[in-house]
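Quick entry, no commentary yet.
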Amino acid sequence: MTQEANTVILQILLLAAAVGALVYFVRSGQSVGVRASKRIAFGAFIVLNIYAVLRPDDLTYLARAVGIGRGTDLLVYLLVVAFVFGMLNTYLRDREISQHLTNLARQIAVRDAELTRRENDLEQRLTALEQQATTNGHRPAATEPAATASADELGTARSTGS
């Protein structure tokens, strides 16, 4: 194969990868929460990538216009900036997720403490009622309806004559 044929094949592969990344980004279920600015930035990055693959001489011209010797160097510098942006974005998202997890853990701990407090209050009330019934001469038996049935069950039992 000639050098030009190899270049065309590489360009086709790079374009397919760029379009595939764009399609995946747009269609993935996770992209729902992605802000519009990130979508626009990613779309612009893909468009510039496609342009650079199709017109590498223009990239070299642009690089020389801004004082960089080669288009490849300019592309590497831009990729470093994109990488730093991606890492910063990932860090901020992880920090936000960590904060949400901390808040959820606090809410669960408070709810569990409240449930434990309510259970303890109910146990104390039940103990007080049992002690009061014992001091009044009534010993609650395990077979008495008050000890084993709820108020709804008692009401139903009394209304049916059981």
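second:
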Amino acid sequence: MTLRPRTRKWALVAHIVSAGAWIGLDVTLGVLVCTALLTDDPAVRSTSLGALGLFAVWPMLVAALLTLGTGVVLGLGSKYGLVRYWWVAAKLAVNVLMAVLILVALRPGINVATEDPDGLLYPVIVAPSLLLFASVLSVFKPWGRVRKEPHDPARRNHRTDQTLRNDRRGRGPEPVRAGR
């Protein structure tokens, strides 16, 4: 299944916007946690930690799931596939891992943060780093294919067929000459 160009572009926009929202939520989490850790004012600390409960788990999880869903649609609807290229597989793994960590690590950490916000320093460092890693993968597309396609003589492309037929080393077919 290949997406039509317009559909693919809209899916790509949705993917970029949801990933951007996720990065923004992570940065906001970092600002609030650092504010709570560095302030001496108990009111500022309480407000910062109270704000974490409003957006840190469910909005981040929604952004993660939207990013995952749009990424799967793009993977299935394009030449890159879901696990055809290493960079796509790595992004998929990072996205799934982070979505799970939001539920199993961040959610309980937010509940305990009122007594000890030091426990939230780890997610503040790791999550943006992983999202930056996924963004770099999207731009540079390293590592190539997961599995090289076996050489099958029956599946040669047209240019290879022309080269072999004409033995002209890829210069194209012979020009048509008028008969004498």
